[in-house]
């Protein structure tokens, strides 16, 4: 079995243009270069961390234990099976599942504008004794926009699983954005004063993806809790892949 070692990769992040230092656990330089390419990192140098080498597994055919006679289990008993914790898992230990949609509070301004337009139209009808019926389209305009905004929120969906973050949106044309969690570099949280009152916020996810380095989750309920769940999922998948990133200022 090829021993896995810890390598320190120094390069330029193609998404931000900043110099970054990434620690990758791999079995060969080819695997290190492949993982660095997946992280959108332009490699400048690769250093081997001598203390990061993992212990080698003994070959059961050449180990001293193989020379001893095999012990047969007592009659009537089955051979012992390895404990579940001894079997490595290919998925992160901290499985996170979260599905949500933007809060309708995001459309508060449009509904207020629609209500104001209806009120102004009724007042105009009373003042002109019903002669201002021609101004009805003025009310329909903000109402139509509010309905479109409402439908857009209804069709927007946020999904978080142990491997990636997915955003689905679009009314006529469906659009799907996804971010691999091991590529995530940072998360930002924005909560204006009125969103703080209703308990929502916007989470910005910054990744090393060159085509889509920033994904925003608008109108998230309990934003602090959701942001922490995203950070936990990112750390779990990084540990599972043996990838760790350090920014160099």
Structure write-up:
This protein has helices spanning 29-38, 64-67, 108-127, 136-154, 193-198, 223-241; strands at residues 5-13, 19-26, 41-49, 98-100, 157-160, 164-169, 175-180, 184-190, 200-207, 214-221, 243-247. Helix 3 (108-127) packs antiparallel against helix 4 (136-154). Mean pLDDT is 75; it is low at 52-71 and 76-96. It is elongated. A 4-stranded antiparallel β-sheet has the order 3-1-2-11. Strands 4-5-6-7 form a 4-stranded antiparallel β-sheet. It has a 3-stranded antiparallel β-sheet with strand order 8-9-10. It is an alpha+beta fold and 249 residues long.
Short summary of the structure?
This protein has 6 helices and 11 strands. The chain has helices at residues 29-38, 64-67, 108-127, 136-154, 193-198, 223-241; strands at 5-13, 19-26, 41-49, 98-100, 157-160, 164-169, 175-180, 184-190, 200-207, 214-221, 243-247.
The shape is elongated
Estimate the mean pLDDT confidence.
Answer: 75
| Poorly predicted sequence stretches spanning 5 or more consecutive residues | 52-71, 76-96
Give the biggest beta sheet.
4 strands, antiparallel
Helix content: 25-40%
- CATH level 3 topology of the largest domain: PH-domain like
Radius of gyration: 28 Å
Fold blueprint:
Layout: E1 5-13, E2 19-26, H1 29-38, E3 41-49, H2 64-67, E4 98-100, H3 108-127, H4 136-154, E5 157-160, E6 164-169, E7 175-180, E8 184-190, H5 193-198, E9 200-207, E10 214-221, H6 223-241, E11 243-247
Antiparallel strand pairs: 1-2, 1-3, 2-11, 4-5, 5-6, 6-7, 8-9, 9-10
Helix pairs in contact: 3-4
